[in-house]
Amino acid sequence: MVSLEHNSSYRQKLTQKPIVNAFVEFIEGREISPANFSQLDKVLFNLMVACRANDKESFENQYSDLSRREPSPTAPYAYNDFLIFVLICGTEKFGLTQDWISQVLDVRSCSDDECKLTTLTLKNLLSKNYSSTNNDLPTVITFQNILEIPLLENELLNSTYSDIVQNSFPRFNSDFLNLVILRAFDVIVLRKEILGRGEVSELKEFEKKFNLRVTSISNFLHWIIVGGIYFLIIYSYFINQPFQDLVKPHLGLFNALGGGGLVVMFFFSKRLTTFNERLIKRFWGYKKDEL
Question: 99-132: string of b/e by CB count within 10 Å (b at 16+)?
Answer without folding.
Answer: ebbeebbeebeeeeebbebbbbbbbbbbeeebee
